[in-house]
Amino acid sequence: MNRASRYLLKHFGALFSSLFFILFFITSIVFFIKITALTAIIQMNFLELGTLYVYLLPRTLIYTLPVTFFIALVITLFNLSKENETIVLFTLGYNPKKIAHLFLSLSVALSLLLMVTIFVLIPISKQLNSNFIDYKKAEAKFNIKASEFGQKFSQWLVYIEKNDDQKHYSGITLYQTPTPKENERLILASHATIENEGGKLRLNLEEGKIFEFRKDEIEQINFERMHINSQPKSAIGVMQSVKEYWNGVFVDDKRAYDLSFFLLIALFPIASTLIALSIGIVTYRYNKGGIYGAIFTTIFLYFASATLFSTWHPQSAPLVVFLLSFGVAYKIYQKRIQAIF
């Protein structure tokens, strides 16, 4: 690597690091607000919130790294043009073609890293995140409070007199309304405990009585211990392998959209490198502004295209949008950079 390349990478690396931490912080806040919204449904402590945040880190990187690369490259080249340093580099024989080759190599490496994240880390983190939320929802079903009416466990209405903590209760009353297949039932128990094993709920009753109200009689059964099981509606999912997860794109529209959209984000550094050069390399005397508008317009158009095409036809969207974006960027690069510099 020659001196000019090291000089460019030094300026680019410094700006990339600063922008990355800023965008990563902003994106993290957005995701963290999304996580904290779950506390309105389920109870979580700070450690559990941190666990969910870790599960969202791969998606945070997917969104921040490509955008940071593009913005940092444009501003780096613009600042060098502002100080006439790009003209010096061109005079010394380091032409725009060499700059393009340098940053295209970096963009390819970054895109490959993002693809590894998409195909390996995203499936694992999404499943862990989903299962953790389902587990907490299932656990929330056990938060039966003392002296409150209208609480349910499975098909039973539950009332308890008092509880020592979240899992030990005393003075339990359970009532089941009559159905076409089952009679009306009432259960009274002195004590109860609650277990949650992988989302499978169990109510353990001790020292109680069961009353079954039939048409002509009432049947009473005394018991020392009884278990009532309940399978929550939000069952904890089984972890799929990476291959099994992405095989779902052939039957699951949401998963097909996710793969298409994430791939287009991963390819954004390659698709946008030439347009970044076209925006950033300028003759400062005649082009003093407008780069920020061009930056946000480029990002908006690419992400809007990625969203629309991934919705319409996720199977072909990555190839179509990427080739179209790269082709447009190359035409602009030829007209604004190659023809002038």
Automatic annotation (TrEMBL):
<keyword id="KW-1133">Transmembrane helix</keyword>
<keyword id="KW-1003">Cell membrane</keyword>
<feature type="transmembrane region" description="Helical">
    <location>
        <begin position="316"/>
        <end position="333"/>
    </location>
</feature>
<keyword id="KW-0472">Membrane</keyword>
<feature type="transmembrane region" description="Helical">
    <location>
        <begin position="102"/>
        <end position="124"/>
    </location>
</feature>
<keyword id="KW-0812">Transmembrane</keyword>
<feature type="transmembrane region" description="Helical">
    <location>
        <begin position="291"/>
        <end position="310"/>
    </location>
</feature>
<protein>
    <submittedName>
        <fullName>Putative permease</fullName>
    </submittedName>
</protein>
<dbReference type="InterPro" id="IPR005495">
    <property type="entry name" value="LptG/LptF_permease"/>
</dbReference>
<feature type="transmembrane region" description="Helical">
    <location>
        <begin position="261"/>
        <end position="284"/>
    </location>
</feature>
<feature type="transmembrane region" description="Helical">
    <location>
        <begin position="12"/>
        <end position="41"/>
    </location>
</feature>
<feature type="transmembrane region" description="Helical">
    <location>
        <begin position="61"/>
        <end position="81"/>
    </location>
</feature>
<dbReference type="GO" id="GO:0043190">
    <property type="term" value="C:ATP-binding cassette (ABC) transporter complex"/>
</dbReference>
<dbReference type="Pfam" id="PF03739">
    <property type="entry name" value="LptF_LptG"/>
</dbReference>
<dbReference type="GO" id="GO:0015920">
    <property type="term" value="P:lipopolysaccharide transport"/>
</dbReference>
